Amino acid sequence: MDAYIPWTDELLTGVEAIDTDHKALICLMNGFFAAAPHGSDAITKAIGELVAYTKHHFAAEQEIMLKAGYEGLKAHIYEHEHLVFRLESLIDRMMMIGAKGVDADLVNLLRSWLIDHIMGFDKKFADFLRTNTAP
Ligand SMILES: [Fe+2]
Ligand SMILES: [Fe+2]
C-alpha cells in the first residue's frame, strides 16, 4: 500500500543519528496507517510502537542538544512535550471511536505533527550543530 507520508530528502537534517530516527518514525507512522483497517489489536500494537519510538527519539535528540550546549534546548523540549501530548490526545480520540477514527483529519494532523517539527525545530538545531561543531 502507498505510504501516507512518503520519505523525502527535504527532511534530511544532515545529522545522521537524527535522520535515521526520523526515517524510522515515518516508517512507524505509515505502519500505523496500514494497521488501521485491521482492527483494534493491530492498531494498538502499531500505536504502542509509534509512541515508544517517538519518546526514545525525543530523548536521544535532547541528549545531543544538551551535549552540544544548544541554547534552544528548553524551547525544543517544550515542543517535544507538546507533540507527545497532542499525539496521545489523538490516540485517545481514536481509541474512543475505533478504527474509523483514522480518517483524513488524523492523517493530516499526524503529518503536520511530524513534518512541521522536523522542518522547523529539528533543522534549526541541525544548523546550530553544523556551525558550532569543529570539523
Ligand atoms: Fe525535535
Ligand atoms: Fe526529531
Order of helical and strand elements? HHHH
- What small ligands are held by the chains? fe (ii) ion
Write the CATH architecture name: Up-down Bundle
Number of strands: 0
Corresponding CATH superfamily: Hemerythrin-like
Q: What share of residues is helical?
A: over 70%
Based on secondary structure, the structural category is mainly alpha
Percent of residues in β-strands? under 5%
> Distance between the terminal alpha carbons, to the nearest Å?
42 Å
CATH topology: Four Helix Bundle (Hemerythrin (Met), subunit A)
Q: Uncertain regions: pLDDT < 50 for 5+ in a row? A: none
Number of helices: 4
Q: How would you characterize the largest beta sheet?
A: none
Spatial extent as radius of gyration: 16 Å
Integer count of domains: 1
Principal-axis shape equals elongated
Mean pLDDT: 87
Can you identify the CATH class?
A: Mainly Alpha
Walk me through the structure.
76% of the residues lie in helices and 0% in strands. The chain is built from 4 helices and no strands. It is an all-alpha fold and 135 residues long. The protein has one domain: Four Helix Bundle (Hemerythrin (Met), subunit A) (Up-down Bundle), CATH 1.20.120. It binds fe (ii) ion (2 copies). The site of one fe (ii) ion has 6 residues, from helix 1, helix 2 and helix 4.
